[in-house]
## 1
Amino acid sequence: MIFQTLNGNWILNEKGSEAYIEAKVPGSVLSALLVQHRIQDPFFGTNEYEVREIFRKDYYFTREFEVMPELLEQDKVVLCCKGIDTLSKIYINNVPVGTTDNMHRTYNFDIKNYLTYGINTITIEVDSPINYIENYRPATGKEISYVPQGCMRGDEFIRKAHCMFGWDWGAQLPDMGIWRSIDLIGYSLIKLDDVLIIQHHEKKKVTLEIRVKAEIIQQGLYIIQGEIVTPEGRVSAITETMEGNEAVLTMEIEEPKLWWPNGFGEHPLYTVSVYALDMNGNEWDSKSYRIGLRTMTVSQERDEFGHEFCFKVNGVKFFAMGANYIPEDSIYSFITKEKIDYLLRAAIKSNFNTIRVWGGGYYPSDTFYDLCDEYGLVVWQDMMFACNVYELSENFRASITAEVYDNIQRLRHHASLGLFCGNNEMESAWVGWDEVRYHSDALKADYLRMFEQIIPELVAEHAPQTFYWPSSPSSGGKFSSPDDENIGDCHYWDVWHGQQPFTEYRNHYMRFCSEFGFQSFPSIKTVKTFTKEEDRNIFSEVMESHQKNNDANSLLINYLARNFLFPKDFESLLYLTQLLQGIAIKYGVEHWRRNRGRCMGALYWQLNDSWPVASWASIDYFGRWKALQYMAKNFFAPVAGSIEMNGNVASIYVQNETRDIEPRRVKLSLQTFDFRLLFESEYNVEIMPGQCELVCSVDFTEYIAGNENKVFLEAVFYDEEDKVTSSEIEVFVPYKRLDLDTSSISYSVIELPDEYVIRMMSGGFAAFVELDLRQADAVFSENYFHLTSKREKAVTLKKSDIRYLTAGTPEIQNGYELEQQLVIRTLRDTY
């Protein structure tokens, strides 16, 4: 195999124009115009709508290249396009060689006969996606009227990330271009087409069955060599002679090191390589995969509540904890390995063991899955279909079949892959959404063909060891009660869209909650990137343009009024919405973890943003952690304590999501806001693996009579080494009724070689203490915590966790400079 990339410098011009600009590939129209300063920042103000209109035009991407002589000497030369967005015609030396209509798949074109020695030219004509969806007409009887909130009409007609046309958190920027690598690959004699690795697990042994299919370019005898490299670097190999165009290799691994999700064990990876050799031992093609040795499925055993729905790895059922992932940027070529790694490391810091790739975006890059393998994040993988009605024409069927096959083949060997899911919310929509369920029976039949025939058959054939689920939410398909809480997975939105109080979570016992969420605004630093000072009112045109959910601002004010006093200024309002978001999600997660066994998963909506916006994200577009991301670190802890309040009765629980027995000492205390002790008691408990234990229940009515708004309850949890693992706080009245003092917080900073230690003290109870830096950005060891005694509180900040996002931000050199930048806010400071 000979490889030559065509990535690098290309020329971009609008069709019909003589003006050209340089464009980097992988890249897009939008990325090129931004880099060359030809358009305004689409994220600032209301520029989004003006920039959107450039996608009504068609564009050419062109470059010259000199083919390597050894490439032209190959029997076959393929143009491999890993991502063309979306509608394109491809020309080599002005001769058409192929077309594309699906950004989610890889296209390979045999182009040897179109290449010449010396200089060649490639031109890719990319057509307007907006013009296409506006002019497309479905077949008679298959007319579609439904439009997802925030989206442009017709997004379902094109195989392009739906959210590029807008969503209720996303900008309408349907970009176009060459968004992934484009390469020339030459083959001779034999080309490996397909390598499927099947794992057979026995006690202290794993056998790999490696099924190989190849394209025989020149007839002859060929050998397939398989090689395994263990995590320690030990190598073993085996060879088999091909029969026809296939071979099967069997390789045994003794004393295998099993791959486990985060919190359950290590994540060792083995490298499996396959080589195509001629009879003289010359190598002509190869493929390599990193795999984890594990069994992975979803258990649906019948129990007293119905049917469970839980991930099961190596025979161990675990409670899935994590969030839903969307594309990290509205400009997909700006999604770098560094951005992906930052986001996934944040997930690990907050104790995620699972992440759901939502179906309205894109199939992430190999980097994403490689990192999930390394970090132990189980991936719930939606296929890229969401909240739409689809017409299954012959062309559409052929396109999605190729798309699904491509991505199954690419992803199936990843240790992190937990399941394939057909779509997001479409089965539920056909059953319960008036805007969807009144579409034609022909379109409803198309749904069944797509998600309960075509896609599951592809999964069964090409990824036979991967669990398939038809939709999310679902009870298993066939439109059979897809929102049933006693079977399958659920999406729960009555808290938020339904305006129900946080306590409503306790009335629901989903088997697996794969979506639930609550909005907040990003921090003032992020808001400043898209506003002028006069825009900083949540009902201004600019702020409403960066709020894509029609009712969200009024919902936030509604929930704020129930829980907090009205804030004194704009920045305080932003802060309070983040507290609301964190408290809401914490309430739901803790309830479901207390009911582990009945519920076996809580994936909140959503982890991240694709542009600076008010949304359900716990990490904003610039990577700034909101209160929710910090709170998740506690409520997703492998061993987590929680307090359940019923009136004045407090019940203390500890949930153990590990494979070990975990002893805990729990100290429960009731104090006044000036730290006068009213009650104290200690308890010792041992929590078995995968269990939740009630530690105690205490009625505090007699202790708080007449002082309900002046006291707080604290449960401190200690491990067997008497180290504090966490603490939980509850109060007896809404936060807006608390009689908080304006006690000042004193603090100092100590510098150590790799980190800073921030030491704080307060003369009285300080609620939801927020730490921030005036100019730089940082992820602290803790944030949005409470100061609950006169004892010193220490928070660490690793130097590697300080970021400088704004050009010209001075780098912090020492503890004194950090102390000067430090900003501390509490709940009492908001009014």
## 2
Amino acid sequence: MLLSTKWLREFVPCDAATQTLSDRLTMLGLEVEDITYPFAGLKDVLVGQVVECGRHPEADKLSVCKVNAGQGEILNIVCGAPNVAKGQKVPVAPVGAVLPGGLEIGKAKLRGQPSHGMICSERELGLSGFHEGIMVLPGDAVPGKRLVDVLDLDEEVLDVNVTPNRADCLSVLGLAREVALAFNVPLRLPEYQLNESGTDASDLVGIEIPDPELCWLYQGRILEGAVISSSPLRVRCRLLAMGVRALSNIVDVTNYVLLEWGQPLHAFDLDKLQGGKIIVSTARKGERILTLDGQERMLVEGDLLIRDGVRPVALAGVMGGQETEIAIDSSRIFLESAIFRPATVRRTARRLGMSSEASYRFERGVDQAANTQAMNRACALMAEFSGASIRPGVCRAEPKPWMSAAIRFRPRRAESLLGISLDKAFCRETLSGLGCKIEEIRDDWLVQAPSWRHDLSREADVIEEIGRVYGLDSIEPELPCVECSLDAAAALESKYSFWSRVKHWACGLGLNEAVNYSFVGHMDLDLLRLPVEGRISIMNPLSAEQNVLRTALAPGLLQNLRHNLAQGAQGMRLFELAHIFEADTTSETAVQECGRLAILLYGQRFDSAWPHKGEDADYHDLKGLVEHLCAAFHLPQPDCKTAANKGHLSPSVNILLGDRLFGHMGRVLPQIAESFHARKDIWLAELDMDLLYTLHHAVKTCFMPLPVFPPVRRDITIIGGSISADVILAHIRGMGIGLLEEVHLIDLFVQQGSDERNLTFRLTFRHALRTLKDAEVDKVREKVAQSLKRDLGVRI
């Protein structure tokens, strides 16, 4: 929203400096993004008086003038305009002046006659496109004065960023209200004289509104005897400063009042309206209208139209129609002023790509109570500029009158939310200054919002206004009081926070996060041989590739792999942390959402750069990640049990935490991997995040002091058939040896042609209070060896 400071000061007697005004508006939530100077190019242009004017001796179309530029300075200027004459007051650009188009005036000699300046036209001054002659100023203009002062131009314009909820500030009046409140100065509305003549015209145009929800108010006034011409210079220059192109006196007034009051208006040529009535109704499918920009618009059901008795004449709240526009020969005017439902205007404007100044305001809400005042103000200006007479009476229909919202307000609640002490007198003055009506009942007030504040609907909105006017920058920052107790420290963290920790863990291990849609295709799930039971189909899918909610994360990660392989990737380390969805008849929503972590490894284990070897990731990499996850979240090492092939995995391994299934992992079947253009093994794991969350928060971690005494290590090699390492590890740990700190597998040897395997384990012993002796460690090691031989039948 552009705001002329000169126009603003016609509403409020605020003498604050422009920068001070800008800063105060910004702190009120109306950020001033820039201060522009639209007529800065005219700063060197002066008022001059033509004291002599004669024909050029060597050119028929040139005149040689002597111009009084003030302070006794007479300039010789050669002028080519046909309308230059002695005695005129004219704009003069002296030598050294730079005009808006970038033209720098210098001394010149035209056909032998010296010229020390330039008498300017409106186009050369950037005020309009008129170039048929020089601009002639009023007779009371004083030579030597600056042109911008004589024309009273708007020299400073603020560019205010108005947030969508503050539609009331999309006008000079709305911003003036804010300034009046901020600087504690009175607000003055523009005065106008509404001189009516003739007979009552309230029945001349009938108004019909079939659906009151689409148009809450529609009214119009009739003017007769208008002469279409250009607007007064001050109006044209003001519109130019506000970024609006001047067209004609009637159209310019509608734009002027739009900027001043924030009420969009539209002027129809009354003689072109047929049937003697206006109907506000929705379009029929396939209906068309030719709008003011010369474009024929195809309409759909739901677009709101203004019709006369025969045809559409305007797109309600967006743009008028060309068939009823004001032309040079128009004399009878029907001025429309209405309130349309914001959502309807917004939908039509977006669909047709026709955002206009009118639609921008209608979409956000317009002051219904001030509608008549804005219309009357426009009628008065039209009568003044065009000589038209205003007929008495208003053609009007208001099926949905404006009703003020009654809002509960408690000063103590405001103090609680804002964290400051508030005086009731301050609250009262602030709300009154905002235009609210207040009914005080002790500490419980009833506040009625003004008609221009559509954003005030609840107590929090009113409290926000109190804080905004108080000054959010005036509220001293204060650290909150935080209670620290064992109960608070032990409080369960949110799942969002927990998931964030898991993501940080995965990224820290070099995995790349993938984020996929929750929708997949039935064919994706079928390809992975996942069960049909429990699937939830989408009723109106966007495509066949997104017609079911995923029951596993694997389809998305495999599609990610396919895409990256197509881009030339040699190795992939992906993870996704998200929900899967399964049918659940016991739930109110009939859907159960389960948190899952999926990990995919493919191709090279490391980047192909020295000193890494060109090895591919395998099962041990995947298993190591799962074990690392459990350790990172203080859980015991998981048990990995070979399972029957799980659809798309072979071999498939179940991952157990105690007796609970944590997830599964394995290699994707080669024939399925080929479908995703994979030439190497794909290793995939899916883990239950809900179970991890539960078990992690059930663990009671205790501080363990760092060991003081050194460890003693012994290796033991076991020769056995197909016995698994897990069985041996479980046996050793189950012996309950107090000195045994750790045991793990360090080597595996299989001799060619033999079924026997040599498994070497390393046992770590340590005492918390002293250094162990070799003899006592060897004794414990021998005890372990004998137990293994006796209970498992292996050789040492």
## 3
Amino acid sequence: MLYRNTAILVTFYKFTFQLTKPHAMVFSRLTIFFVLFFSGISCTNDPSPWAFSYPGDAFTDSALLDLRYLNEDYAGQHGFIGLSEDGESFLREDGEPIRFWPVNGGSATRSMDNEELAWHARFLAKQGVNMNRWHGSINPAGKGTRLFEIDTAEAVFIWRFVAAMKREGIYTTISPFWAHNGHMGGWVPEAWGIEGYSGKDDLWEVMYFNDRLKEAYKQWVKYLYTEENPYTGVPLRDEPAVALVQIKNEDGVFFWTMQGIRPELERLVGRLFAEWTVEKYGSLAAAYQAWEGEKLVKDDPVTGILGIYPTWEMVQEVAGGKAARLADQTEFYAHRQRGFYNEIHDFYRYELGCRQLINPNNWKTASPEKLNDLERYTYLDCEVPAVNRYYDPGHYGENNGWRIDPGHFYQGISCLKQPLRLPVNVKQTAGAPFLVTESGWNLPHIYQSEAPSLIGAYQSLTGVDGFYWFSISSRDYMEFPYFEFTKDTAGMYAMNRWTYSTPGGIAQFPAYALMYRNGYIRQGEVMVHEVRNLESLWRRESPLISEESSFDPNRDQLDGIDPMDVHSELNPYAFLTGPVKATYGGDPAETYITDQLPELVDMESGTVESVTGELFLDHRHGIFRFESEKAAGLAGFLGTKGNFSMEDLSVRTSNHYISIGVVSMDQLPLDESSRILVQTGTTYRPLGWEQEEAQYVRGNDTLQGYTILNTGKMPWMAQPTRVEITLRNRNINRAVLLDLAGYPVRELDVKRRGDALLVDLPPESLYVMLMK
């Protein structure tokens, strides 16, 4: 659909981006003038979309919105990041608590020169970011390499990245290895000497069993952490700006890929399992007796090899000798994986001398119900457990793991209407912090703007300690979120599925990063604390409460498997009321379940309230409300109701869908504050985007959604804001519209009604500052 004045806006937008970066900065304010003139005036009379055109930034003091001040002068200024006394939160070395608003953004910086990288780090800090994850590969890459070589170019990229982020008060998480073939340079050489693996093979699960690959890993990270960083003069092991070391990314013995290992590795696993079994029972004969004679075809007791059940069997109900043998295989897997993490943790800590906190992994399992607790158990010897968990758009089509093409199907349901899939609904390990190290509302979601408000609020409530948005793929906003080599005969391009450098993504950070990092939403009391004995884990018994899984288009491709098929004895809406914890290795009689759940979860009306009383979700209508002393707001399908009243804030809107955050900038209550940010987010689509209602058959299910007809082109077109707010506050008498970089554009008309201030937000608003 085309809108009045859009053609003029797009012509001017294209002109500015044909300029060099310095000249584009000169024209940036002029761009905003044209955007406001053409789209703003138009929207006043006709609610047409406006072009989202970022003006660039020289980072001057005239900006009214800049969250750089939340960060330290430089990351690590007050020493290494440690843990609170109860082990569940992060502290600086000087004892001050610290909260992280993290992103995944390392790979985007490879193509930046030093000046661009410095600018990018400053941009992230301004948006509220204080942690950035480098997810890369320190291993040798591709044909002609040898296993114990180091990718020194990757090490230099990491060192430069750490230094640049450090200068802007942004800590770094380093993820140095992923077993995906693409992170091996697309090719595993036979010269690596990993029996059974070469060419385009992935190395899933190999490192848990293959000592040669494990020793190579140690060699790679030794170089990375002990060589002097030429950009700082300090080896990473001594660098407090590196907050977290990840051992590996997305791998584990309890996922489906374990049943696809190569025969050579399967025999090695079978030999190690037999050795473990003999140690437990004294002999294989005694083990067979304990297993009631249960044997597998691949058992070879003479050579000391036991067959292993495929992962499928681990998620089924079994009995008798098979159940006993499968419990032993499960226990063996768990000890093997935990032992690996323990060994590598101690290698980092004691042999390399790394002082950082260590995360073992972040992966999911074949069954959240039966295997997730096992996965988390294997993390216990490291300080920080984590998971990667996305809110997926239900996107299907060829190559949907990395691109969005015309002809693809997606559902695009708001998380507000299926909140059990909220990525921070996690069962946290008691006595440890918990991170979600990759997540986001991936494109082609149109409801991205709900995400920062939901995450900022619910991770505050539940005590989740960091949510890493995936991924930042540009120096600011992605000017061309398409793959240039994919242009088809109709002139359309495939779109980047994973970018969060969007108007609905990183543009929505400031209000909610500020709210979360300043603790404006209270953490609730523990609602459920499940204590599990280890035998129940080995038997893969269902816990009292389970997380829902997330769908990964690159890994969840097994026919007949529904990753969302999860059953809980307790109502899983408990995740939305307050923290849910678990202890692995204890007396189940010590399990605690609050008696408040029936009061907070109303299944008949479709509503859930937090135990703190500050968060309220109507998932039947898709409306979220948060209200605390220093922050208040709404998100979702607000136009279905139109008017909302809270203690200090009232909102009137005709927007079908919008997020609205009102957040104190000076840490004073909203009714006393002298500076308040009003941030809105609507829906955003590329110019010319087209779709039509459609159905898609997946397995036995027929999904309702949309077929993409045209992926459009830049710029992003934003639905206009149609909101009037009334705020109870005597101190504020001004409202200033800000541009997309946080600089003042113009004063807005305000009205007073006693103690209340009334502001009619302009259609083109994203940020409005209320001031004295």
## 4
Amino acid sequence: MKISVNWLKSLLLLNHSVEEIEHKLSVSGLEVEHVEDWFSAGSGLQGFVIGEVLTCAKHPNADKLSVTTVNIGEAEPKHIVCGAPNVAAGQKVIVATVGTTIQMPGKEAFTIQKAKIRGEASEGMICAEDECGLGNSHDGILVLPATATVGMPASQYFNIQQDTTLEIGLTANRGDACSHLGVASDVAALFNIPFQRFPQINLPQAPITKKSIHIADSNLCERYMAVELSNIQVQPSPETIQYHLKSIGIEPKNNVVDSSNYTLHQNGHPNHIFDADTIQGNIQVRLANEGETLTLLDGKTINLHPNDIVIADDHGAIALAGVMGGQKTAVTANTKNVLIEIAHFHPTHIRKSAKRHLYHTDASFRFERGIDKHNIPYSALTLIQLLEQNAQAQLTGMSDNYPVPHTPKVLVIDYPKFIQFTGADVPKTTAVQILNSLGFQTEWDNQNADLLQVTIPSWKNDCEKSVDIYEEILRIHGYDQIPMSGKMQASLGAFEGMAMRKVENKIREFLISNGLNESATNSLHPAAWYPNNNNIVQLTNPLSTDMDTLRASIIPGLLQSVSHNIKRRAQRVQLFELGSVYSLNTPEVQKNKALINASIHTPSFIETPTLAMVFWGDHQAESWENPTKTVGYYHIKQILQGLLIRLGSKLDINQIAIQQAPKNWLKAAEIDTPVFFVEIPWRTLLNQQAQNLKVQSPSKFPAVRRDLSLVVNQNTTYKELRSIANKLNLPFLTDIRAFDVFQGKPLEASQKAIALAFHFSNPQATLVDEEIEASMNKLIAAYEAAGANIRK
């Protein structure tokens, strides 16, 4: 939000420097993010003077240049080479002297220096309109009237106005400061300047408006004030109003529109002016009808949503309330009669409408933060007076629908508690003075001198509790006034996040060392990625339709990264991301115990820390040693197996799904070749964590191998046979390997033969035959009991 310092000074007696104002506002909660000098033309015409061309001759070495001498009021005329076709002796011109910075629209700035141009000395520049910031023409130099005074600064000749604008980063709770009056109120309190934000007024007498106002729901519109004015003369605004508006970045249009903008930015009340002759019937404030459309002031036609508040006449919507007016009822050069609207609309509805239709206007900015409905008549009077003075308007009607009057809130402050809470021993008189200067009404309790009754002004909608009053006192008194005790007390709670972060870093280190790159994608997705998912978490107020859902999977974001790299001729893309996915906390989701145990719960949704990986293209970079291979299932499984070992996890590799991205996702990401992916709640890796690995030196004694050939059912797996052996807990058995599988005659069709090698080793001594035979006999007995036949 931009604030003009000159505009502030027109509202209160302010003699302090811009630097002091900037500092005080910033430390009191209205952070000044940027300070900029403003001029009514260019950069203020600094360094430009009025000159007279004394002589003008053709340049001896260039056909399109002229050599001139120019009197700029100094002892000697300046020699200036000029390329303008219209330069001639006797002209009064604008001259940029040596050292002057020229800033032309759309071009880099440069500084005028003494130079030789094609061998001729040049000590300045005779300027065109665009070169000095007075216009956009570059057809030739700007020739002034013969009455212009030679040597006069151009800024003085053109009466250049100067101002300083403060760009304030306004927080969402400071609706009271969305205007010059609001900022002036804080400045007055900070510098102890007498100031009354909304003095008592008497509205002029006028009959009820010819057009009746109907409010369908007082929750949508708590106040609607309408003013009818006739015999409007549409013309340019006075220069003072134009300068104020220009200084905050608003281009003046005409006295009617400018008066509306001026009132908004001075008082903080959004308003709208309709051409009354284009309104058909009476005014209604209601929700939009299904299928209703509206063409706005910018010419764009929008499809209204049933939750949009609209201003309508008997033939349909004529304005999107609190956001923008309609083109049909816009003020034009031919407007003669107007109807002014100053209203209070529901902030949430306005915010949603503005975001829904992608409009962020000065009006919606203020409605979203909450405006002061009680002092709407003050802005109505301001606007009436401006139009009477500048547009010769005549007041013909006024109505005020105020179904929900403002009730002042009263808070009781226990002063000793305030001092104890803040640590600031602010004198009672100082606290009362600060609150009064901000518009609060105060009164000490007759029975208890430590209790202060504070009546909240109508514009301070962020004051709900006692601590809010504490803040108002302290931000004006100065947080730097709170004494430091020299001690620091802190209560450190248990922090378990570091252990998780260490595991995350282990995962990162392993995957990066295996050739994957870490990615960080947006956690907001379009709902279109999840057409059949009823558990997605949708945002109430999305920034756009492309970011209306908390992601239910990380893979769509990674696929978009894959697509980005493919389009840039990548041959191999392997990415991973550690992030969260989200789902609604429904009974259906609660049934998945493994997911629940690996997630963070809230009453409405579940957040699951997740590891996601995608693989596309070549298995490894092309080289003369290795032929090019496309990444596949076993390459990914190898990486996963290594990761489980690195984490010391007992999770079975077969519990991790290696999948190909579905076709609809590939199509949405504009990928036409397969992409493998893995997505797993990574805390499941920790829930089955094994003991720490131990280093053991190999045995010094010889190992022994014994083989068995088992005839088993063809459906029997190696895993089952290995499990039978492991359950025996044989003391010296170190490994089991399957080295041959046979099917065919003389075996039956339902049978197969598996040859297993059993490796034995004793780290303490050499094994003897009796020990090995005992183990083998137990193995044979176990396999026969399981239905296997031992081939002799």
